[in-house]
Write a structure and sequence with these properties.
Layout: H1 3-20, H2 28-35, H3 60-67, E1 78-80, E2 88-95, E3 109-116, E4 129-134, H4 142-157, E5 161-167, H5 184-192, H6 205-226, H7 236-249, E6 255-260, H8 262-273, E7 278-284, H9 289-293, H10 304-318, H11 330-346, E8 349-353, E9 358-362, H12 364-374, H13 378-393, H14 398-410, H15 429-437, H16 445-458, H17 462-465, H18 467-470, E10 496-502, H19 508-515, E11 522-529, H20 539-551, E12 560-561, H21 571-574, H22 580-591
Parallel strand pairs: 4-5, 4-6, 6-7, 7-10, 10-11, 11-12
Antiparallel strand pairs: 1-2, 2-3, 3-5, 8-9
Helix pairs in contact: 1-5, 2-13, 2-14, 4-22, 7-8, 10-11, 11-12
Keywords: Hydrolase, Membrane, Signal, Transmembrane, Transmembrane helix
Family: Belongs to the peptidase S33 family.
Transmembrane segments: 255-274
């Protein structure tokens, strides 16, 4: 790669980070920077929900780990990521790329796995087996999840288990990896053209989105031709089969599993395909699998406005000393935010940051995207959001802008050889999985606008969500021979189904619907906002999850678990923060970084 090409990539990376930084996930460290003293550290995590980032960093130690792991038809665990208080092991398992044909050199995928091993050997009577985890997505990395919170998950389920994360086929360290672009320069130039838009104020938004989806579809066709046809095998059906293969290679005949978000679709698929292979199966933050496989994405926002209402209510209850965006009632706080939106629509706030030498503006779509992201983890982010909104109202965008600067520092735009970045997570697996899973959809402007109107009637957040379905409008029409339902089965052990009362993207309604297909399953309701149970601190929920894995017991029908505190603590709830569980659970909630779309 010549010097000019390097310079071009650096330029494009810089443009991208400046103008679309808040499409990135907002890690705990970014928001804590708004309210904590400088120098307070926090665990890292997946940088992005929607995968919009020209360059992601990969450490040399990360590269060294996975280049040394040899893929095998058997699970061979190797010590890796060794450090203080770390005891992790890595493996690569060879599985058939297409399960309709036997494993061979031309029909194989390599699945990357990471585990925190049990305190007991597999032959010890106290050993209870491996629990597989999926963080969501589609396209989320299970290896990243275990790197981030594996020890905390171990504390929840118990040291009798191995805690195992895996990168699903097509994702991150698993091979072949879905990668639609020829090189990093091509990817950076493409992603620099994406921006934050408001469909209510900008004409032609959906036409532009459809055109970009058309480009992605053509790139997928190019990869399918040149890559030996692997894209059609990157789907949930085969990943469920991979989980069974992983389980059997560890000497077990039944799956132990905890799946979040999209991971609930994977879990429901496994339970329907292999009902007699269920040992323990928790689906947490449950999506409507039928809606997903129909490529509708139309009922995710049923409870999103409830999640936003929790911000208004908890801000009011916390009072002006604990919530800088306080007003005389929850309704008044909502009106205060609406007024701020209206101001930003007409007058975005410029930012010139001398510390980072960066410039830009905070406008309405920017803020909408930031708030929607915060709804995933209210207990981690609501207090800092209140401060950021108050600052914005006063014309000071530095609090929000610091999020962009933190994200920018996490990118590495060296744009060197592709081998340098062989283990980065990139966004292509998201459409690669969900569009191959789902039914083909119309790519017409009329259909797209009608879908947006349907979403808008359900929730005020349709402007943020409607783009997801558009991604599949021009995806190649692969043969749909994989499993797409029905989602039902008389499982060998009943499922534990968990839903929050105000989950922004997987409503409690979906948990109750999916539970009906699996006799004996129980819906455990957690009375909290946020995405998945780990978004809120509940001793009750954690105890039921632990008992389910260790003893196989289920909570009584209709159980509703409380949480320890409101999302914005009051003066009284702050006094209880010395509670050890609250501290540990806070680390889990803030570090987990479950990815979008789900």
């Amino acid at each position: 790669m010549g010097l000019g090409r390097h310079a071009l990539c650096l330029f494009v990376c810089t443009l991208f980070v400046l103008y679309s930084g808040l499409y990135a996930i907002l890690p705990k460290s970014n928001w804590e920077a708004l309210s904590m003293p400088q120098g307070v550290g926090s665990p890292g995590g997946e940088d992005e929900r929607n995968g919009r980032g020209a360059c992601r960093s990969t450490t040399s130690s990360e590269e060294g780990v996975w280049t040394e792991i040899r893929a095998s038809e058997d699970l061979v665990w190797t010590d890796c990521y060794q450090g203080k208080d770390k005891r992790m092991q890595c493996a690569r398992l060879l599985v058939p790329l297409n399960y309709s044909a036997p494993l061979s050199d031309s029909n194989q995928a390599s699945i990357a796995l990471l585990r925190v091993p049990s305190a007991y050997s597999s032959s010890h009577p106290s050993y209870l087996g491996p629990i597989l985890f999926n963080p969501g997505g589609p396209g989320g990395s299970g290896v990243d999840l275990i790197l981030s919170v594996g020890d905390l998950l171990h504390q929840i389920v118990g040291k009798e288990f191995d805690v195992v994360g895996f990168d699903p086929r097509g994702v991150a360290r698993s091979l072949p990896r879905v990668d639609l672009f020829r090189d990093r320069v091509e990817r950076a130039m493409w992603e620099a053209g994406e921006g934050i838009v408001d469909p209510e104020r900008e004409r032609g938004v959906f036409g532009r989105k459809l055109a970009r989806a058309g480009v992605i579809g053509r790139l997928a066709e190019r990869v399918e031709r040149s890559g030996g046809g692997y894209l059609r095998s990157i789907q949930t059906d085969h990943t469920a089969r991979d989980m069974l293969r992983i389980t059997e290679k560890q000497g077990r005949d039944k799956l132990l599993y905890w799946g979040f978000s999209y991971g609930t679709i994977l879990g429901a698929t496994f339970a329907a395909m292999f009902p007699d292979k269920v040992g323990r199966l928790v689906i947490d933050g449950v999506a409507d699998s039928e809606n997903y496989f129909a490529t509708l994405w139309s009922n995710n926002l049923i409870d999103t406005d409830k999640t936003m209402q929790w911000f208004f209510d908890s801000c009011y209850e916390a009072g002006p000393s604990n919530c800088p965006f306080y007003a005389s009632s929850p309704e008044a706080i909502s009106q205060r935010l609406t007024k701020l939106y209206d101001t930003l629509k007409m007058q975005p706030i410029p930012v010139v940051d001398p510390l980072s030498s960066s410039t830009g503006m905070v406008d309405y779509p920017f803020l909408r995207t930031a708030i929607f992201t915060v709804l995933y983890k209210p207990y981690a982010f609501f207090p800092a959001l209140a401060k950021a909104l108050a600052d914005l109202e006063g014309g000071n965008a530095s609090s929000i802008w610091s999020v962009m600067n933190s994200a920018q520092r996490r990118f590495r735009c060296s744009c060197g050889d592709d081998e340098e970045h062989a283990f980065e997570s990139i966004s292509d697996a998201t459409p690669g999985i969900m569009c191959t899973d789902g039914k083909p959809i119309s790519g017409t402007l009329e259909d797209t606008e009608a879908h947006y109107r349907e979403m808008k009637n359900m929730s005020g957040w349709a402007d943020v969500w409607a783009n997801i379905r558009v991604m599949c409008s021009s995806w190649p029409d692969f043969p749909r021979t994989h499993f797409q339902g029905p989602f039902e089965g008389n499982t060998s052990h009943p499922l534990l189904v968990i839903g929050n009362t105000a989950d922004p993207v997987t409503p409690l309604w979906a948990a109750k619907k999916m539970s009906k297909g699996y006799p004996g399953s129980v819906v455990l309701t957690q009375d909290s906002p946020g995405h998945c149970s780990i978004a809120g601190p509940s001793v009750c929920t954690i105890n039921y999850v632990r008992d389910y894995f260790q003893k196989g017991t289920l909570p009584p029908e209709g159980t509703v678990c409380p949480v320890l505190s409101p999302p914005i603590p009051t003066s009284q709830t702050r006094l209880g923060d010395e509670n050890q569980f609250y501290t540990s659970f806070g680390s889990l909630s803030e570090s987990s970084n479950l990815p979008l779309c789900l």
